[in-house]
Amino acid sequence: MKESLNSPGVQIPEELSGLVAITTLDRIYNWGRRNSLWPLMSGLACCAIEMICTAASRYDFSRFGMEVMRPSPRQADFMLISGTVTKKMVPQLVRLYNQMPEPKYVVAMGACASGGGPFKEGYSVVPGIDKFLPVDVYIPGCPPTPQALLNGLMKLQEKIDHQALKTDAHWYKKDGSAPIPVPILGPDLIDLRKVEQIRLASQVQQPASDADNNEVPHE
Amino acid sequence: MSDQSAVVGTVTEVFPDWFSPDSRPGYAGYIVPSERMREAAGYLKNRKHFDMLTSVTSADYFPEDRIEMVYHFRRSTGGEPLRIKCFLSRVESQIDSLVDVFPGAELQEREVWDLMGVRFTGHPDLRRILTWEGFAGHPLRKDWKEPFFEDEIKPYKSRWPEGKFIRAEEKNPLGDNLCFPPGFDPESWVPDKDEILYKSMTRVAKAGEDGMDSDTIIVNLGPQHPSTHGVFRMVARLDGETVVDLKPVMGYLHRNHEKIGERNTFLGNMPFTDRLDYICSMSNNFAYALAVEKLLNIAPPERAEYIRVIMAELTRIVNHLVANGFLMNDLGAFFTPVLYSLEEREFILDFFEAASGSRMMCNYYRFGGVVRDLDENMMSMLKAILERLPRKMDELEKYLIGSEIVRIRSEGVGILTPEAAIANSATGPLLRASGVPYDLRRADPYSIYDRFDFDVCVRYHGDIYDRFMLRIDEIRQSIRILKQAVRDMPSGPVLTGKPQYQVRVPAGEAYGRVEGPKGELGFYLVSNGKTNPARYHVRAPTFINLTSLAGMSRGNKVADVVTILGSIDIVLGEVDR
Ligand code: SF4
Prior knowledge:
The complex is a heterodimer.
Chain A: H1 25-34, H2 46-55, E1 78-82, H3 90-99, E2 105-109, H4 110-115, E3 137-139, H5 146-161, E4 184-185, E5 189-190, H6 195-204
Parallel strand pairs in A: 1-2, 2-3
Antiparallel strand pairs in A: 4-5
Chain B: E1 20-21, E2 30-31, H1 37-47, E3 52-60, E4 67-74, E5 82-88, E6 94-96, H2 105-116, E7 119-121, H3 168-171, H4 195-199, E8 206-207, E9 213-214, E10 217-221, E11 233-239, E12 242-249, H5 257-263, H6 270-274, H7 281-296, H8 302-331, H9 336-356, E13 365-366, E14 369-370, H10 376-401, H11 404-410, H12 418-423, H13 429-432, H14 440-443, H15 464-488, E15 508-516, E16 519-527, E17 535-539, H16 541-545, H17 549-553, H18 558-568, H19 572-576
Parallel strand pairs in B: 2-5, 6-7
Antiparallel strand pairs in B: 1-2, 3-4, 4-5, 8-9, 10-11, 11-12, 13-14, 15-16, 16-17
Helix pairs in contact in B: 7-8, 8-9, 8-15, 8-18, 9-10, 10-15
Bound molecules: iron/sulfur cluster (SF4).
C-alpha cells in the first residue's frame, strides 16, 4: 500500500506500517480512481500512432494504470481525443461521450484536438474538440511525444487527486450531467445549441467574397 | 529525372488525330475532346495496352471557364505514365464515367464529383465521398471559399511580416468554422439518413434451401470501431455471417489537405505531406520533392540521393512492420505481435529523430536535397539497425508463420486476382501479392534506384497470407538496398543551391511519384508561376486500393472482412486527406 495514502500526522505502530493506513474517504476514493484510468480505445489521426507507441513496451503507460483500453464507451473512464476532429466525425464522438458513465474526462491530445492545429483553416475541421466536449487536459505538440502524452495523463491524475467528493463529485448529484446534443450534418455542421444564432447569421449573411481576388503575391 | 518532358516524353506512340498534344509550355500529354474520352480510354486499354488507370483528377482554371480532367494511364508491364486531359466548362462540367472500362475509377470519380463538382454520366454510384450528402458546394473550385477564408495565398498579410494576427474566429459571424448558405433554416433541415447508401447495396431476397425465407441484414462497422484502423466505416450487407455486399464509407478524417495545400507556399506544403500517411512521412516528402523538382528542373546532389533512398527504405521497413503487426491484431493475436513490431520501429524512429528532429513528422526533404546531413553517430546508429533487423525478421517470421491460426485464417481468404487488381488500379503490396511484379522502382525508376541490386517481390495467391509474406520479403529487400546505400554513400553537399524559404516555380505541371510502402504515391502539381501551387493533388495509394475491398470481401465471413481490410493496410490520413 502506498505510504502517501496515510494521512499525515497519524501515527501507525511500527509493526502495522505497510499494512494499515488511516486516511480520508476522498483520498482513498481518488487513489483508486487515479490508478485505474481506462481510456476509450479510439484513434483519430496521426496522434493515435503516438498514443499506440505510448501503450507499447518502450513507454508503457500501464505503469500508471492506463493499459486497459476499452473498446466500449460504457467501460471507459476518459476519452483521449488523439487527432484531428472533423465535422463528419464529431457527431460520433459526442455520442460516445454521452455514452460514457460518470465520472468521465476528456484529454485533448495534440494541436488538432486542442485547437484545430495545422488543419484549423480547413472547411471540414472542427477547430478544437472543446467546441463540443469539456476538456480536462490539453497536451501540446504535433504530435506530442510519448513523454508529453504521459505528462498530460499524469496531469489528469493530479486533477483527480484534488477532486473532493463533497464539492466536485457532481456525478453523484440527482440532476447529474445532461447529455450534450449530438450535432447534425447539414450544409455545414449544425450545433443544436446554436440553432437560433445560425438562423440569424444566415439571414444577414452577405456573399463571402468581399476580400476577393487579391492576386498580389507576397514576397 | 529532372527533365520535365520525362513524364511522358518517351511515349512515342501514334495516336488517332483526335489526340492532340498539349503544347502549352510546361505541360505535357495529350488533350482529348471530352465527348470522346470514354472511347479514348477503351482505345488505350485495348489497342495500346495502357491497362491501368493510375489516377483521375481535375484542376480548376478559374477565372477562365475551364476545368481540366487529368487522367494518368500506365502499362502494368512498366514504363512512364501517359497523361490525357479533357477540357470541361465550369458550368456544365460533365463527362462520361470510365468505371465500366476501368473499375479503378470508381472512388476517384466520386472524389472529383465531391470536391470539384464534375458530374460523371454513367457512374454506378455517384455520391459524395469525402464530405457528406448535403454539404454545400464543391470545395476545390477556386471560387469556393472556406468559412475561415482569409486570403488566397500564404503567408497571410495579417501575420507576416508584422507578426500580429487576427484569430480566424473573430471574423466569422458565428465565431466558429461554420458558414451556411443565405436563408438557411436549421429547423427545417432533414439530414441524410444513409438511405441511398443502403439502397445502393445489392439486395438478395432468397428462399433458403429448407424453404425458410431469410433476409439479409445491414451491419455498420465503424467509424469508431476497434478493428477499423482509424476512423473508417464499412457498411456490409450480410446473409447470416456471409458478406453479400460491402461499401467503404470514408471522409471521417477529411482534413482538406488539397485546399490548404493550394493556399500554402510550395515549401510550406512539405510538413503537411508528413501528415498524409503519418506512418511513412519520409516517403511522402520524397514524392512531393520529386514533383516540385520536376517543375524547378533541378536535381539533388549525389549524397542527398543516397540519403533519400536510405530514408525511404527505412520508412518502408517501418510501414511493413506496423502493417503486419496490426494485421495480427485483426487475427486475434491482440497487441502482442505488434509490440515486437513497434520495438523495431522505435530504433528506426530514433534514427529519424536524430536526422530530422522529429520521430514521426520528419519534414526532412527539401527541393534539391535534404535539410541536414547525416553525421558519423547517425551512421553508426544506422549500421546497428541493419545489424539487428535481419535477426529480428527471422524471429518474427518463425513465430508467425509457424502459427496454425495465422495460416488457417489467412490462406485463401480475401483473394484478389491479378486481372481484378490491375483493373482496380491497385498498387503496392496489394498488387504484387496478386502476382503482378510491378514496382515503380523498377517499372518506372526514379532517383537512383537503378543503381541498386534488389528483387521485386511477388507472390501469386493474392490472399491475406501472401500480402503478409510479401511485406516480410520486401523488408528483406529493403535491408539489401540499405546495405548497398550505406556502402556506396559518397561525401559531399546535401542540398543544391542555398536553402530557400520561398521558391519561385515556373508555370507548368508535374507528376512526381514514388513506390511508397503502400503503393504508388503521386503528387500532381500545377504551377502558374506564383509562390503557391495552383493545383495540388495527391494520388493516395490506399484510397485507390480500397476500390478492391468490396470485391475481396464478397462471399467471405464478416470476421474476415476485418483482416482483409488490415491486409490492404490503409492509413486514414491518406485515404481521406
Ligand atoms: S496534432 Fe499534428 S500529429 Fe496530431 S493529429 Fe493533428 S496534425 Fe496529426
